[in-house]
Amino acid sequence: MQHDSKNSWLNYIFLIVLGLVMVYPLIWLFTSSFKTNADIFGSSRLLPTTYVWDAYKLGWQGTGQYGFEDFFINTLKLVIPTVIFTIVSSVLVAYGFARFNFPLKTLLFSVMIATLMLPNASVMIPRYILFNKLGWLDTYLPFIIPAAFATSAFFIYLMIQFIRGLPRDLDEAATIDGCNSFTVLTRVLLPLCKPAIFSVGIFQFMWTWNDFFNSIIYISSVSKFTISLGLRLSLDASSAVSWNQVLAMSVVSIVPCVLLFFFCQKYFVEGISTTGLKG
C-alpha cells in the first residue's frame, strides 16, 4: 500500500511539473504584457520589474484608423459562418456515406480521402486563380463558400466514423415510426452526434481563428483584417514597436479559443476518443 501511495505521489508531481512546463509560455505571455520593452528583452525574469498597466487599453485602441475591436469583429464575421457551414455540410455528406448506398460510392469516398494527401501548396495557386475569376478576393467568401460545400475531408471522415458507430437499429425503428431520411438525421442521429459535432466545431474555430496564411492571401483591405493580420499590422505601425501591447492583444486573441475549449471539453474529448475507437 505504501509503495502504491508513493507511486501515486510521484505521478502527481510529474504531471504537475509537466503541466507547468506546458503552461509556462502562456504565463510568460500574460506577465510580459505588463512589461516595458527593456524588461522584455533585457531580463529573463517572469515578473516585470516595472509594471505597465495600459498595454491592454492602448493595444485595443490600435495605432491607426482601425483598432483591435474592428479586427476582432471581422474575425467573428469570418469564423462563425465558416464553422456553421462546415458543421452542416460535413454532417450531411458524412450521413450519406455512412448510411446510404449509391453509384460510385467507393470511388467518391476514395477521392475524398485522397484530398487529405494533397499538400496545400499544390492547390493554393489554382484556388487563388479561381477565387480571383469569381471576384471573391478581398472578401470572406473564399473561407465561407467552400465550407458550405464540405471541402474538408478530415471533418467528413471524422463524422463518418462516428455515425458508423451508431446502431442502424435506431434508423430502422425511426423509419417504422414514419420518419424519412432527413428526419432520422435531425431527430435521431444528430442528438447522438453531439461529441463529434463539437469536435468539428472546435477544430474549425481554432484553425480559422488563428489562420494567418490564407487570410493574408485573400484579404488585402485593412478594414477587413482579422486578428492575426491585425497583430502583424501592429508590428509594421512604426519603427518602435510597443511589444507589451502586441503581447496584450495576443493574450486577448487566445482567450476565445481557450474559453471555447474549456466549455466544450467534455464533448470534445468524448468525440475524439469515440471516433478514434470506432470504425
From TrEMBL:
Topology in membrane: Multi-pass membrane protein
The ABC transmembrane type-1 domain, residue ranges: 72-264
Domain of life: Bacteria
Gene3D superfamilies given in the database record: MetI-like
Biological process (GO), any one: transmembrane transport
TM spans (from-to): 12-31, 78-98, 107-129, 141-160, 188-209, 247-268
Pfam short name (any one): BPD_transp_1
Main location: membrane
Compartments where found: Cell membrane
GO cellular component, one term: plasma membrane
Keyword Transmembrane tagged: yes
Keywords: Cell membrane, Membrane, Transmembrane, Transmembrane helix, Transport
Family membership: Belongs to the binding-protein-dependent transport system permease family.
Protein name: Sugar ABC transporter permease
Species the sequence originates in: Paenibacillus borealis
